[in-house]
Amino acid sequence: MLLASAMFAIMGSFVKLATEHGASLPQIVLFRGFPSVILLLLWARAARQSIVPTSWRLHLWRNVAGVTSMWSGFFALSHLPLATATSLNYTAPLFIACWMLGWGGAQRDPVRIAAVALGFGGVIAVLRPSINDDQWLAALFGLLAGSMSAVAMLQIRQLGRIGEPEWRTVLFFSLAVCLSSTAGLAIDGWGYADLLGYAALVGVGVSGLFGQLAMTRAFGVGSALLTAALQYSTIIFAALLGMGLWGDRPDNLAWAGMGLIIAAGLLSVWRTMRMPADS
Fold first, then answer.
1. Higher per-residue pLDDT: 228 or 164
2. How far apart are the first and last CA of the chain?
3. Which of 1, 62, 122, 255 could form a disulfide with 155 if both were Cys (CB 3.0 to 4.6 A apart)?
């Protein structure tokens, strides 16, 4: 999971770099999904695995939410400091906790209430020192990415319960990503990336693929609670990369906000694992 977190932070860096060197957002989305499609289709053919899904409906909702989250998250990464955008993208457990409190039968759970309060207090702390007047739209898209990621996580959980293999879920998501990028390219055009921009696009695909594979492996064989907790190291990796590559210098309030988001996410994950009947 630490490897996956590092890969996703590196992917975020490549997203910013590709944007700075002329790549369009649809290009970035295409390069994120295409390597996974090719690799998984080749593996399925070699292993003689069927690609017919168990439930089209669950895949549809998972992909609508996941694709929306990816586009929103990449937009935020393109326009915000790396650590700020990554922190907003990792608010999904807070939105899941909100859903539990509102509709999931956990209305009186003080732990989830505390997690939500801590987490969104952290969001406010991150945004106030880090966001300029012209960056609020990107910040809202970062929060949209977190909320849609929460919806996607709930659908992935349902797919797992009906026995859908993880590789097939990733395959159909990657196909949906590529289809959405094709529509985006028809509207926005191919972009004007230079040589470094194309190198960054390749980096998006490679780092995203290795991050996805490492995360799938971690959740498949490791402790679910520890694995879910370690994913928040992505925020730390992103902060270090932002400082090293772009000279980002989060102030004390921003660091405190990131810490609150991480603490709230860990608290929410812990509560969900401890109370499987409510999740």
1. 164
2. 22
3. 62
